[in-house]
């Protein structure tokens, strides 16, 4: 009996390992991410930022012309997620926005690029327009250092000679799909630029083109509460198993980290199965306008003119049900507390400290457009996410914060 049982166990183990080849658990290549609320322009209009990013993502994908001209996602300049990245040898540290919706990595917006013996000017002009900002300059190759001393040699990086909309940060660490770099070298419109993740793989530092992302809910304006893991996942950051869903084939979500999902509030359907994206550069959870109306009536929320967000009373908050994201055969339940903006941060977004605001809002267009939702930061701080190029899939897992009540 025992040998047979252990053989079976061994077989099952072998099968489960074969079925999830992606899991390089505890990859040592991790990079902390700091979250920063930018209040230098007065109070933040979260909704306006997120909706214009959504529109820019759709537009960039919609016209190949726009994409070839290097016009891709707008970055969210209200709430940014920053990683410290070293470039050169000896390295200068640059604070770069971590962006899953764009794929060029570049520096020079604030701290000037410091050339060292490893800097090579390729002479290629590079330009990217992000909607609310842009950069143009020259493509270099240089040594890039991530986290504690891990180096990539001859990484392509943009060096900005001109940039707009990037006050207080040095540029972007683009972890979106490789194809988004196509057309950004203005003299070679069909060339792509190997991303940092791609080069880690090509140089044998990681064995899968995978990035794991961990965020945690926060009530502080600036905090280091995120982590990027290259080449695998960090098992200390999630609970249970990661389940994967294939990248969607539906355009334009398929240009980004796109997946299919449906959303229910309690048992009520809010959004029927459709395609959308997972995005670190969007703060809220945006859903098609018709789904948003259904959610508003189901929760009884009123639209708050000052913030543009939905607002609920404490009685309505007590009655709030889970918002269920049905992805593949799994359901990720966003708890009532996960559906509200951290009350300690209400005044930063132009709200009243005693009010309760919801983080679910409208994407600004009805469903049926191939990019009908964005699972933004407020989703990602409750579920660990894995962006897997090698196996064309996105994975999610619950975390110690999935049911946290810190908001
Ligand atoms: C902060 O906001 C100001 C004003 O809205 C903007 O000009 C600036 O680029 C933003 N800074 C960052 C780091 O995004
Ligand atoms: C996603 O949904 C679309 C539209 O229903 C469907 O064609 C596609 O097969 C689904 N799955 C993937 C992985 O794209």
Task: Provide structural commentary.
With 407 residues, this protein is α+β, with helices and mostly antiparallel strands. It has two domains: 4-14 and 28-214, Cathepsin D, subunit A, domain 1; 237-398, Cathepsin D, subunit A, domain 1. It is 16% helix and 37% strand. The protein has seven helices and 23 strands. It has helices spanning 2-19, 46-62, 64-68, 196-202, 289-299, 314-318, 377-380; strands at residues 30-37, 79-87, 92-99, 106-107, 120-129, 134-146, 150-164, 171-174, 210-215, 222-230, 239-246, 258-265, 268-278, 285-287, 302-303, 310-312, 323-327, 330-334, 356-357, 360-362, 373-375, 383-388, 393-398. Strands 1, 2, 3, 4, 5, 6, 7, 8, 9, 10, 11, 22 and 23 form a 13-stranded mixed sheet that branches. Strands 18-17-12-13-21-14-20 form a seven-stranded mixed sheet. Strands 15-16-19 form a three-stranded antiparallel sheet. A hairpin with a 2-residue loop joins strand 12 (258-265) and strand 13. The longest helix is centred in the N-terminal third of the chain and has 18 residues, at 2-19. It starts with a helix and ends in a 9-residue tail after the last strand. The model is unreliable at 1-22 and 64-77 (pLDDT under 50). Bound molecules: 2-acetamido-2-deoxy-beta-D-glucopyranose (NAG) (2 copies). One 2-acetamido-2-deoxy-beta-D-glucopyranose binds at residues 38, 40-41, 77, 80, 165-169.
């Amino acid at each position: 009996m025992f040998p047979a049982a252990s053989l079976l166990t061994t077989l099952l183990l072998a099968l489960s390992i074969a079925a999830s080849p992606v899991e390089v658990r505890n990859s040592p290549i991790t990079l902390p991410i700091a979250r920063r609320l930018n209040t230098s322009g007065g109070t933040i209009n979260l909704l306006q930022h997120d909706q214009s990013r959504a529109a820019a993502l759709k537009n960039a994908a919609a016209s190949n012309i726009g994409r070839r001209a290097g016009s891709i996602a707008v970055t969210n300049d209200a709430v940014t997620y920053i990683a410290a990245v070293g470039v050169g040898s000896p390295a200068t540290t640059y604070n770069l926005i971590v962006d899953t919706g764009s794929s060029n990595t570049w520096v020079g917006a604030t701290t000037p690029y410091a050339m060292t013996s490893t800097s090579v000017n390729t002479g290629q002009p590079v330009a990217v327009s992000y909607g609310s900002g842009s950069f143009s300059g020259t493509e270099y190759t240089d040594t890039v250092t991530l986290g504690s001393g891990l180096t990539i040699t001859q990484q392509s990086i943009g060096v900005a000679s001109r940039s707009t909309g990037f006050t207080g940060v040095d540029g972007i660490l683009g972890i979106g799909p490789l194809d988004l770099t196509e057309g950004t070298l203005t003299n070679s419109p069909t060339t792509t630029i190997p991303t940092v993740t791609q080069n880690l793989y090509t140089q044998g530092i990681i064995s899968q083109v995978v990035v794991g992302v961990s965020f945690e809910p926060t009530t502080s304006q600036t905090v280091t509460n995120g982590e990027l893991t290259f080449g695998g996942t960090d098992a200390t950051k999630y609970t249970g198993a990661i389940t994967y869903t294939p990248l969607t084939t539906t355009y334009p979500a398929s240009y980004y980290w796109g997946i299919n999902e449906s959303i229910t509030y309690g048992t009520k359907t809010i959004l029927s199965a459709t395609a959308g994206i997972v995005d670190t550069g969007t703060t809220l959870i945006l859903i098609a306008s018709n789904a948003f109306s259904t959610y508003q009536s189901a929760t009884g929320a009123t639209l708050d003119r000052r913030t543009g967000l939905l607002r609920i009373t404490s009685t309505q908050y007590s009655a709030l049900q889970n918002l269920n994201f049905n992805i593949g055969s799994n359901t990720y339940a966003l708890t009532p507390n996960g559906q509200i903006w951290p009350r300690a941060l209400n005044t930063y977004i132009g709200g009243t400290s005693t009010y309760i605001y919801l983080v679910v809002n409208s994407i600004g267009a009805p469903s049926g457009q191939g990019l009908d939702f964005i699972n933004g930061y407020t989703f990602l701080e409750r579920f660990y996410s894995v962006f897997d190029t090698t196996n064309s899939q996105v994975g999610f897992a619950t975390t110690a914060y999935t049911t946290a009540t810190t908001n």
